[in-house]
Amino acid sequence: SYCGVHGGFTPIWRNDGLSQCFYDTVVSGIFFVLLLPLFYQINKMRKHGVGVESKYKPRSIMYQLQVLCMLLLSIEVPVSFCVTWGEVDHVTSGMICISMYCGQFGCWLLHLERNMMLLALGRKGHSAIMLFLWGYLLSTEVLKTASWNSEDWWFKQQTPQQQILFGFWVGRLVCSSLLFTIGFWSPGVPKLNSCLYLSEDDRDVENGTDPLNRPRDGSTWSGIKEKAVLLWPYMWPTGNLFLQCRVMMCVAILIAGRVVNPYVPIYYKNIVNGLTTGQPWSYVWVQVCAYVGLKFLQGSGMSGGLLNGLRSYLWIRVQQYTNRLVQVRLFSHLHSLSLRWHLSRKTGEVLRSIDRGTISINNLLSYIVFNIVPTICDIMIAIVYFITAFNAWFGLIVFICLALYLAATIIITEWRTKFRRDMNTKDNKAKQRAIDSLLNFETVKYYNAEEHEVRTFDEAIKDYQESEYLTNTSLVFLNLSQNTIINAGLFVGSMLCARYVLDDKFQIGDFVLFGTYIIQLYTPLGFFGTYYRMIQTSFIDMENMFDLFKEGQEVLDEEDSIVLQLKTGKVEFDNVCFSYTPEKQILKNISFTVNPGETYALVGSSGSGKSTIIRLLFRFYDIQSGVIRLDDVDISTVTQQSLRACIGVVPQDTVLFNDNIMNNIRYGRISARDEEVEEAAEASDIHHRILAMPDKYDTMVGERGLKLSGGEKQRVAIARTLLKAPDIVLLDEATSALDTTTERNIQASLSRVCAGRTSIVVAHRLSTIVNADCILVVNNGEIIERGSHDELLDLGGVYNEMWQQQLTET
């Protein structure tokens, strides 16, 4: 009478299915045990949790779906009890009702996790007990499929009551699957880095700390939605029908592989049974041919079969497309970033992030699409096959073994994430140190600091290897854990199968089938940990690259920006104010007008704002107030490309590409012919010097142009500007780093550049701008004097003092 009409507690397996009495009792008992940690977590949240302001609670439809599923699961228990009223004993009914209480406590905890957070938790997302509850709910519903062929259950749907119960089971399966899947993303739980402050006063304003810029912690799966949005264009080759067909063919091959895998051990079983029972040759040779053919398609060990080989061949072009697209888009994005970002970047870290990020995207797509997804499909097929072909015990053994394996893999890999992140950070520092030292090798030589640089690099490598040691040690622990779980499952399943063979319940071929299939299943599963770890590694490697993609453009074209059509070349600054940081004002109400064809000069002490004016005209930064106009057109309303096409710059420090002289000059106008390049070189008075070199215009200038002298590099820069033929010329202390003789020679070349063009010259040596139409004296971001050379000397102010000082020095 313990279970009413459902019979006694034993036997556990009867009528091709589990005993309902046994199942309900065990499941409800485990639910009762789960009540204790649920109540503990609820009590902990109520005592130590910090309330979260409503503005920090993320709004998500997925969270509303979680709440709905929890409510439906809680309501379903008493409804099912009413449907089966009178069929079960009160003892069993009481055990079943424990599930309802467990669901109610789960709803309570979900509500607390939405509105409160534990500061000491140090992680994001749902609590471990909540995730375990949802996982247990799903596993209990999946386990019922072992009794699919049993008439004691309601899968046959012979009566209206059984049809209702079957519908309830489908609903529970759907709800528990959604809860378990969505739970890993925790859409309704506030994020740790943005909601732990009850008010703005809790922030460390004095020291300038920002909780959003904390070191990375937690799972690499956080922010998976944003990562997927960035990755999607690289996963699906939009606009390329040829590559799209290749992707679809690869998917079809994956499906074919999932169909082939179960049949390989089945035909091997048929061969063994045929040989042991004395089947005719006509039967045996067909089974052997089928087995060998399927094995050829499947492959063995580390060698891929025909299907994997064909899939790898088809995927090559897709992988190349992804590789190229990632690098080109990131390269384009980096060039679109502001000058402020480029001045503060670390070249070594950026290059390292690009390399690792590009490789990681290719690895991520390959691991997920061709390894993780097929392995999960193989696991599900194996569980269903063992339940139907053998019995539920074998399906349960495989399910528990694989569940433990996956759980151990995920938990230990998540734990190892911090070691990998730390290793990447130290790797970036080591590479940055090496590149920075090599780029500044002249300074190293000047100060005889080779030993210091080597010692510093050695310390960086040692620091990196400490993190590498922890990463590899934790990997060994992960592999041992996986191997223990796999062999434990193989041992239990083999012992049970051997016992059935001795009891004449199974044939010898069934034992061979179990061993072959389970080993075949464990082979990709043995790499599952590696794949998951590599996915984690890929996500970690991509984090720095995602940071580069997220780096916003400081200077943007407006949606209705026009193309600048410069006609006269008039330049106007109207009450321009600018600051790099709010604390320090660089320019204060700067106003001046340069008429077409005139030359204006900017002079003043270092840091007064002269070069900033040049950068603002080139629109490297946006101003805070005022207007900068070209031909009476506000430069903020035109496209940056058309603006910069009208302006030529000869900088103080000319940096050349590691290419030949011809291509460095041609950079002023990429489409220029060789004859035009030589004309520009002749106009800048460097043509004859180039012809005197052994390789002439094919002479390599070296990295940053170090093989050329300062005067030669400056003339190359002038030749570039002449080749560009701009309407406006900006000279930013173009001769300040040169000796007096070289400066006088280059002044003639600069005069050719500025002839007939609107020019603005930033000058350090006043002798170079005595013929300027107007000289502006800038001090502390303000124009304090303006006029021609003679007018400023007659004024007897700051300019006159600067002139007298330089005259005395000369």
Automatic annotation (TrEMBL):
UniProt keyword annotations, A-Z: ATP-binding, Cell membrane, Disulfide bond, Endoplasmic reticulum, Endosome, Golgi apparatus, Lysosome, Membrane, Mitochondrion, Mitochondrion outer membrane, Nucleotide-binding, Secreted, Translocase, Transmembrane, Transmembrane helix, Transport
Subcellular localization(s) per the UniProt record: Cell membrane; Early endosome membrane; Endoplasmic reticulum membrane; Endosome membrane
Membrane topology: Multi-pass membrane protein
EC number: 7.6.2.5
Domain ABC transporter: 571-805
Recorded catalytic activity of this chain's protein: coproporphyrinogen III(in) + ATP + H2O = coproporphyrinogen III(out) + ADP + phosphate + H(+); pheophorbide a(in) + ATP + H2O = pheophorbide a(out) + ADP + phosphate + H(+); uroporphyrin I(in) + ATP + H2O = uroporphyrin I(out) + ADP + phosphate + H(+); heme b(in) + ATP + H2O = heme b(out) + ADP + phosphate + H(+)
Transmembrane segments: 22-40, 61-86, 92-110, 164-185, 241-260, 364-387, 393-413, 484-502, 514-532
Top class in the EC scheme: translocase
Any one GO CC term of the record: endoplasmic reticulum membrane
Gene Ontology MF term list: ABC-type heme transporter activity; ATP binding; ATP hydrolysis activity; heme binding
Alphabetical list of InterPro entries matching this protein: AAA+_ATPase, ABC1_TM_dom, ABC1_TM_sf, ABC_transporter-like_ATP-bd, ABC_transporter-like_CS, ABCB6_N, P-loop_NTPase, Type_1_exporter
Superkingdom, taxonomy of origin: Eukaryota
Annotated ranges, domain ABC transmembrane type-1: 251-537
Coarse class of the protein's main subcellular location: membrane
GO biological process, one term: heme transport
PROSITE patterns, per database record: ABC_TM1F (PS50929), ABC_TRANSPORTER_1 (PS00211), ABC_TRANSPORTER_2 (PS50893)
Family: Belongs to the ABC transporter superfamily. ABCB family. Heavy Metal importer (TC 3.A.1.210) subfamily.
Description of how the protein assembles with itself and partners: Homodimer.
Name this protein carries in UniProt: ATP-binding cassette sub-family B member 6
Organism (species): Ciona intestinalis (Transparent sea squirt)
